[in-house]
UniProtKB/TrEMBL annotation:
<comment type="similarity">
    <text>Belongs to the carbohydrate kinase PfkB family.</text>
</comment>
<dbReference type="InterPro" id="IPR002173">
    <property type="entry name" value="Carboh/pur_kinase_PfkB_CS"/>
</dbReference>
<dbReference type="InterPro" id="IPR011611">
    <property type="entry name" value="PfkB_dom"/>
</dbReference>
<dbReference type="Pfam" id="PF00294">
    <property type="entry name" value="PfkB"/>
</dbReference>
<dbReference type="InterPro" id="IPR052700">
    <property type="entry name" value="Carb_kinase_PfkB-like"/>
</dbReference>
<protein>
    <submittedName>
        <fullName>Ribokinase</fullName>
    </submittedName>
</protein>
<keyword id="KW-0418">Kinase</keyword>
<feature type="region of interest" description="Disordered">
    <location>
        <begin position="1"/>
        <end position="22"/>
    </location>
</feature>
<keyword id="KW-0808">Transferase</keyword>
<feature type="domain" description="Carbohydrate kinase PfkB">
    <location>
        <begin position="23"/>
        <end position="316"/>
    </location>
</feature>
<feature type="compositionally biased region" description="Pro residues">
    <location>
        <begin position="7"/>
        <end position="19"/>
    </location>
</feature>
<dbReference type="InterPro" id="IPR029056">
    <property type="entry name" value="Ribokinase-like"/>
</dbReference>
Amino acid sequence: MTHPAPHSTPAPAPGPVPGSTPSLVTLGEAMAVVAATEPGPFAHGTPMRLGWAGAEATVAVGVSRLGHTAAWTGRVGDDAAGAMVLAGLRAEGVDVSGARTDPDAPTGLMLRERRTADRLRVSYYRAGLAGSRLAPADLDEARITGARILHVTGITPALSATARAAVEHAVRLAHGAGVTVSLDVNHRERLWSRTEAAEVLGRLLPYTDLLFAGPEEAALFVPGGEPEETARALTRLGPAEAVVKLGADGALAVTADGAHRQAAIPVTAVDPVGAGDAFVSGYLAARLDGSPVPERLRLAALCGAFAVSVPGDWEGIPRRTELGLLAAQDITR
């Protein structure tokens, strides 16, 4: 099948136009998810559930559930899967009036196989599909420059040249307008090499205010070392605030005020996919609250703990009224 150039402008997705600029604006890929609900290889008759996911979309859902306005921009196909993605985001209070339905490319797909009781195997079908066709022309520049935070990840610029251009354009717009730029490295080796990721994302660091990275992701830019040393090295590349996500060992943030540590909150892990994005959503929501760094880390850890304890990418992210369910287990050191 021959597709027109990715920079062609598809029709806006149906949905209400918001009355004001959302506090958080994010752009990226969202796709349908078919996930096995029981362990074992994919086979005829395997029990499955249908859903949707996307790193930036998950962050938007989390911020919305925690009481702030959020918007997601991206492309989905003009198909049932795309309609499901947009309806799901709207149901979570996320503004998708800036999203686009692409009539010439279908919505991407993720297959999640529970190969054993404690091992997931994930396959993506995204190359050349709607999400990868995001382009600078899809962006609402006024919305970006009017937001309080722009959040992007390292996934989107790895999808295509036009998606990369969209992320770079959005970051520069936001930075020029004094909007806080949040970047989660979120490196995916299946999409691009470490060398290419370091080169492309490295160009974004001078425009970034808040950087999230795991230890291996941080090593794209700085030599490996202790988490605090790593975070401090990252802040010397541009970001005023660097957060190193340490999984079961919690997280650490470094700002001009010093280093702050947060232990992981102990829960029974059911599904690790999406936990990092849930963590980011909690951190950004607390930043929008005006909370200091230790409270940002605490809320981030709570959101990550909720997420891993529920199947799905974003389904387990808590609402404000639910935070007390795990808050008693919070340990800050």
